[in-house]
Structure formats: C-alpha cells, structure tokens
Specification:
The complex is a heterodimer.
Chain A (H helix, E strand, L loop, with lengths): L18 H12 L12 H20 L1 H5 L8 H26 L5 H9 L16 H19 L8 H29 L3 H20 L11 H6 L7 H19 L9 E2 L5 E2 L5 H11 L3 H14 L1 H23 L1
Antiparallel strand pairs in A: 1-2
Helix pairs in contact in A: 2-4, 4-7, 6-7, 6-8, 6-10
Chain B lengths: L7 E7 L7 E7 L3 H12 L7 E6 L11 H9 L19
Classes of the chains: A mainly alpha, B alpha+beta.
Chain lengths: ~325, ~100
C-alpha cells in the first residue's frame, strides 16, 4: 500500500463555520479522541480526508498493474504464488480504503469515476515501468518499504475508519517488503548478470521512491492543517530521512550501490542525500510520466470490460427479489 | 458508468479465539451470497476467522453521536454498580 504527498488540504474553500463547533472539534483531536463518520467535522477536514483516502485507494488499485505485469513470468512457482498473493493484497487494501473513504459521504462509484476520468491522483511511483524481474524485488523492498514508513503513523490518524483500515494494511504490508528483499538477496547472490540486473533496478527506482514522500517541507503549504488535525504526524522530509537511514545498510548488505555519489553520513548518523529532481516529480504528477497513459487506459479497459458482470449481478439480485415478493404475495 | 450503486454490507467475523463476531469493515455486493464470498476474499485472506456475518448496512439503527451525553448519562452516575464501590475488610482477602 502506498501513500505519498496526499497530505495537502484545501486552503481555498475553508468555509467559515460555527466557531464553537470547530473549537470543540479541535479539542477532541487535541485529546487524541477518534473522529467517527457521524460526528460533526469541518467541511475542509471531510474534503481533505476524502481526497487523501481515495487517492490512497486508487494507488493500491493502480499499483496492481506494474506488479501484475510479472505474474505470468515469475521465475518459479514459489515466486509466482507469492506475487499473486501480494497483488491480491493490494486489491484488498484498495477496497478497505474505498470503504473508509465512503464513510465520509462520497460513494465508491463516484470516487472510481473520478480516477478513471483522470481527475483524481494516485501515487506517482506507479507511472514507472517494471522492465525486469529485479523490479519486482525492488518494488517490494523500496516501494513497500517507503509505504510502510508513511503508513505506520496513519494507524494513529484522527479519523477512526482510516486508522482502522491502516492497521489492517500495515499488518499485511511487512510480507510484501520481505518477499521483495528476498528476491533482491537471491539476485545479488546469483550470477554477475543477475546482480547487474538488481543494480540496474535500484538505479532506476531510487529517486522515484524518494519522491514518494512528497515535496520538501518548505514547499508543502498545507502541512500545518493536516498536522493540527492529526491526519499527518510526521513531515515529508522527516519520513524521507527515516527511510533513507533504514535503507542504506540494507543496500550495503546486498552489495548494491545507491545511485547518489554525493551521499554521506553526517555526525548524527543520518545519511544526507543529494537534491531531488522535483521537476521530474511534477511532470509525472501532471500526467507525463513513462506510463501514465498506459495505467489509466488499463484501468478504464478493466472497468468497461467488467461492466456486464456488475450489471448481470444487479439484474440477478433484482430478479430474485421480485420473485420472493411475488411468492410472499401468493 | 450509469449503473446504480451496489448495496453496502457490514462484515462481522468470529475469530478462532472463541470471542463474539466483531465488526471488521464493509463492502459492496449485489446480494447476500456475493457479499459472503467477497467478505471471505477481502477480510479473511490469512485465516482471520471461522464464521462470517454480513448485514445490509441500511438495516443497522445507530445511536446519535451528538446525543451521547444524554444516552449514556444513566451509566455515568451510578458508581454503586461497580465492585470497587463496596468496602470489604482487608482480613477477608480477595473477593
């Protein structure tokens, strides 16, 4: 499961609301109370969360595509079964999250339509292609690793349904990261060619993975509100640093080189990395990444080709219901 | 995309440890049979349960959170309903 840069709130439509209710709401948050679906909440809180949770859900669903690409070409039955289970988990995570988002008052159909229409965003990382089997290892190791860093604090998010969904997701996520790292260990202990493939995958994924944590703190204009509402507990840069510090020793263990010659450890033990190319991030978010069009086209095709199933299931349920009513009337 | 929204169901699962069915989340399905199958796939991929209930969400009547003060007041003021309200001499020991 994957989140990124989803923590921005709306500055423009923060309506002036009942000040007393807003103060009461903030007091509940400050006391670490959970906000539940039928509780009063500021419109901006509802809107921010609807967007963040639904984008998170879209990311899970779109995230099935790059990995699904390798299910039929997995190198062994063991790897294939594991990858299939992982992709099924991503689907489940998407569904938990859509359910959580719906409690805020927007239907899943509307949320999905917004994504298919290109109006809702999903994590930029899934707009990169999976070119080799090593990419599957790298996604598990780094993409899921970064997602875990992002998601653990969300288990304590102020909105109850989101926090509960995240607890389920986090429980399942650690299998994803471990299966990815195991693939990397196997490749790195393999032939020179296999190790080169692992290095090549790391070279391509490293920077996009760092971008998953979202824009740098100075550039993030709405972080304050999300922090005040306890939707966000750590800043983008804090989480990014935590991730880098955890990952460097893992790369060293694998004998792989992080593609950042300027990287060095400071006196606090933190690994300092070179500046990130935020122009690339902006381009991918704007729809100009390597796979943006493919991903949306694949989602639209799946949605359209599944339409008859949804319609048939609905028609069957209607038929049964009217038959039962007719029998009851006899 | 003009299809009407699929009904919502609440899912309850009884885990291995003998506890009661517990709410785990919700899902969409057109009928009860499909709701049960979807609940199995979405909420029990790792042996989380031995029994599943699915309930149409619109069949649930919920208390109003804005009236919780009045709703639960009777329980707040009756400390004599708790065992610690009563003094038992120390020499009697655990009771």
């Amino acid at each position: 499961m994957y989140t990124q840069a989803l923590n921005t709130s709306d500055g423009d439509d923060r309506a002036v609301e009942d000040a007393a209710r807003a103060a009461e709401f903030q007091a509940r948050i400050d006391q670490d109370e959970r906000i539940e679906p039928n509780d009063w909440m500021p419109a901006a809180y509802r809107k921010t969360l609807t967007r963040q949770i639904s984008q998170h859900a879209h990311s899970e669903i779109v995230g099935m595509l790059p990995e699904g690409n390798w299910i039929t070409r997995a190198p062994s039955l063991r790897r294939k079964a594991a990858l299939l289970a992982k992709v099924q988990d991503e689907c489940g995570h998407g569904l938990y999250l859509y359910a959580a988002a719906e409690t805020l008052g927007t239907s899943r159909e509307e949320l999905v339509d917004a994504m298919l229409a290109g109006k809702a965003k999903y994590s930029s990382i899934f707009n990169y292609p999976t070119l080799t089997w090593a990419d599957i290892g790298t996604i598990g190791w780094l993409v899921d690793g970064a997602a875990i860093m992002n998601q653990i604090p969300l288990c304590r998010c102020s909105y109850g349904p989101y926090a509960r969904a995240m607890i389920r997701v986090c429980k399942e996520e650690s299998f994803h990261q471990r299966q990815g790292f195991e693939i990397m260990v196997t490749l790195c202990r393999g032939t020179a060619e296999q190790k080169a493939m692992a290095q090549n995958a790391l070279d391509r994924w490293w920077w996009p993975v760092l971008m998953m944590f979202g824009p740098p703190d100075q550039a993030s204009q709405h972080g304050d509100t999300s922090t005040r509402w306890k939707i966000k507990r750590f800043s983008n840069d804090e989480l990014r640093q935590k991730f880098v510090d955890a990952t460097v020793p893992q790369a060293q263990f694998l004998g792989l080189t992080i593609p950042d010659p300027g990287m060095k450890q400071n006196e606090n033990g933190n690994w300092e990395y070179s500046p990130i190319d935020w122009e690339e991030f902006k381009q991918v978010l704007a729809g100009n990444g390597p796979c943006n069009r493919d991903r949306l086209a694949a989602r639209r095709k799946a949605h359209e080709e599944g339409a008859w199933v949804r319609e048939a299931a609905m028609a069957y349920a209607e038929k049964r219901k009217s038959r039962q009513l007719a029998q009851a009337a006899e | 995309m003009a299809t009407p929204n699929t009904p919502l169901w609440e899912v309850f699962i009884r885990s291995r440890n003998g506890l009661a069915h517990k709410h785990v989340g919700s899902l969409h399905a057109t009928d009860a049979t499909l709701a049960l199958q979807a609940a199995r796939d979405i909420y029990t991929r790792r042996g989380e349960g031995l029994s599943i209930w699915v309930v149409p969400s619109n069949a649930i009547t919920a208390s109003d959170p804005s009236e919780k003060g009045m709703m639960f007041e009777p329980a707040e003021s009756k400390i004599y309903r708790h065992p610690t309200f009563y003094d038992v001499p120390d020499e009697v020991g655990h009771m």
